[in-house]
Design a protein that fits this description.
Length: 287
């Protein structure tokens, strides 16, 4: 005996169908992946994530005020931890699946998840990604920025600039009742102009009530694929752009198994915002 497939989207019981219900159910009837209703944040939840985002942005602003050649990434960790906790929030990374510090600091060829260390001292010409996630009153927000230390090479400057453009282009491609694949397609198309690699092993993600939720937001792909984007969904776009190949590996010398490095050990850059989908496009909740 066959079983009837359960629909992902469930209209609110006892309530008339809304315009959102009709649009989501239409795309589900066409075989597209749609969110479950629990991925749609309420106005109160969005406001909580927005408040968390204010603290998260403040953390990265504080880093921007102090970062300089000669400081260690362990000092960056202290700055982030102290600012976050002094504002009544919790560093989400600290202890997450064994991660030992409060922030990820990824220098040059380290793509992401770099662990702050006393021996990792920033040098003139380095590029470094600082990635922080805040929990405030149970709400999560997540963002990262690139910092150029002193004067670097034109090649690294271009990589950092293009990575930021990829984030901006991805946000522009994210439309209500469009698809996650639209984001990745736009980012990958821009990267190909520079012969850069878009990392495929890691992606953006839903965020807000948990550190990582649906949808997975790949930064490469095809239009019209992936999950339908519906107003009220909160997620990150965080393209990791490598100067060379898109392929990566985990540093065997990392006792925690976290640090991701470009396979050819050429530099990598990443920018990230937490975003909420509205009826008119995305609104940025973290900078």
């Amino acid at each position: 005996m066959g079983f009837k497939k359960r629909k992902r989207w469930q209209p609110l019981p006892g309530q008339p169908l809304t315009d959102m219900d009709e649009k989501v159910m239409y795309w589900e009837s066409k075989g597209k992946e749609v969110p479950t209703r629990d991925l749609i944040r309420t106005p109160e939840e969005i406001e909580g994530i927005r408040r968390s985002g204010v603290v998260n942005t403040g953390v990265l602003d504080e880093v921007a005020r102090h970062i300089h050649a000669g400081m260690s990434t362990l000092e960056i960790d202290r700055i982030c931890h102290d600012y976050c906790t002094s504002h009544g929030a919790i560093p989400a990374c600290l202890g997450y699946e064994g991660f030992p510090k409060s922030v990820c600091t990824s220098i040059n060829e380290v793509v992401c998840h770099g662990i702050p260390k006393a021996e990792d001292v920033l040098m003139d010409g380095d590029i470094v990604n600082v990635d922080f996630t805040t929990i405030l009153d149970g709400y999560y927000s997540d963002a990262s920025r690139m910092f150029i230390i002193g004067k670097t090479t034109p090649e690294k400057e271009q990589l950092v600039r293009v990575a930021k453009e990829c984030l901006e282009i991805g946000m522009e491609a994210a439309k209500p009742y469009g698809f996650v694949g639209d984001i990745g397609h736009a980012i990958e198309k821009h990267c190909k102009k520079y012969h850069y690699g878009v990392v495929r092993d890691l992606c953006g993600h839903g965020v807000g009530l948990k550190f990582h939720e649906k949808p997975d937001v790949a930064h490469y792909g095809h239009r019209g694929q992936g999950m339908l984007l519906v107003p009220g969904m909160v997620f990150t776009i965080e393209p990791m752009i490598n100067m060379g190949t898109w392929r990566v590996f985990i540093d065997e010398g990392d006792p925690y198994g976290w640090e991701v490095i470009s396979e050819d050990e050429l530099p990598s850059a990443q920018w990230e915002h937490t975003l909420v989908m509205t009826e008119h496009g995305v609104e940025i909740l973290t900078y």
